[in-house]
């Protein structure tokens, strides 16, 4: 071999070319991104943890219970991620939502205040392929009591949905 001659590139072993490995690597990339969001949210002083129950009128209809967190992106906007699992007529069902919410009254000047938002939702049902949808919703935040606030949402994203949300909050901010 001469000095500037390169050895021939070797092909990847057949096991690494399978779709299962590609899916696993994609999953690891998503997990890394979610971990980055979690670390960023943990570092943020004003993060908000939430729990929720949603009914989804779609094909198939489902009911999901989930949890997530949001971080402020200024006075009026909150960004976050929620994961939920439940049941549909096809068996186990789940979803992941990545959302942005715009609050009309972020400083709790009124007991009840509307908000609107949007984002992406990924739905997973047993024996069906995963589906990705745009998500839009309207909600109303209720009063805070003992560090907990309750909200109600209605939206569209892979079907119509209604939800009840309980968030960790303060009496000064939504």
Q: Can you describe what's shown?
A:
With 174 residues, the chain is mainly β. It has one helix spanning 19-43, and strands at 48-57, 62-72, 77-88, 91-103, 113-125, 131-145, 148-156, 160-168. Helix content is 14%, strand content 53%. The protein has an eight-stranded antiparallel β-barrel with strand order 1-2-3-4-5-6-7-8. A hairpin with a 4-residue loop joins strand 2 and strand 3. The protein is globular. The mean pLDDT is 83.
CATH architect. name of the largest domain: Beta Barrel
Count of alpha and pi helical runs: 1
Termini separation comes to: 69 Å
CATH topology of the largest domain: Porin
Q: How many β-strand stretches?
A: 8
* Class computed from helices, strands and strand pairing: mainly beta
Mean pLDDT: 83
Total of domains: 2
CATH class of the largest domain: Mainly Beta
Query: Helical residue percent?
Result: 10-25%
Strand order of the largest sheet: 1-2-3-4-5-6-7-8
What's the story with the biggest beta sheet? 8 strands, antiparallel, barrel
| Beta-strand content bin | over 45%
H-E order: HEEEEEEEE
Integer-rounded radius of gyration: 21 Å
Q: Which consecutive residue ranges, at least 5 long each, have pLDDT under 50?
A: none
What overall geometry do the principal axes of the alpha carbons give? Answer: globular
Map the helices and strands:
Elements: H1 19-43, E1 48-57, E2 62-72, E3 77-88, E4 91-103, E5 113-125, E6 131-145, E7 148-156, E8 160-168
Q: Which key phrases capture this entry?
A:
8-stranded antiparallel β-barrel, 8 strands, mainly beta, 2 domains, Porin, 174 residues
């Amino acid at each position: 071999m001469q000095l500037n001659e390169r050895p021939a590139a070797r092909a990847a072993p057949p096991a690494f070319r399978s779709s299962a490995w590609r899916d696993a690597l994609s999953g690891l990339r998503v997990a890394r991104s979610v971990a980055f969001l979690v670390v960023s949210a943990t570092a943020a002083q004003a993060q908000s943890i939430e729990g929720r129950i949603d009914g989804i009128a779609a094909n198939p209809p489902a009911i999901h219970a989930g949890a997530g967190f949001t971080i402020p992106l200024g006075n009026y906007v909150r960004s976050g991620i929620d994961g939920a699992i439940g049941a549909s007529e096809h068996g186990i069902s789940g979803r992941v939502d990545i959302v942005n919410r715009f609050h009309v009254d972020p400083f709790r000047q009124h007991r009840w205040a509307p908000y609107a938002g949007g984002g992406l939702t990924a739905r997973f049902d047993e024996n069906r392929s995963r589906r990705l949808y745009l998500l839009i919703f309207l909600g109303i935040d209720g009063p805070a009591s003992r560090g907990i606030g309750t909200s109600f949402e209605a939206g569209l994203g892979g079907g119509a949905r209604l939800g009840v949300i309980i968030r960790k909050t303060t009496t000064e901010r939504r």
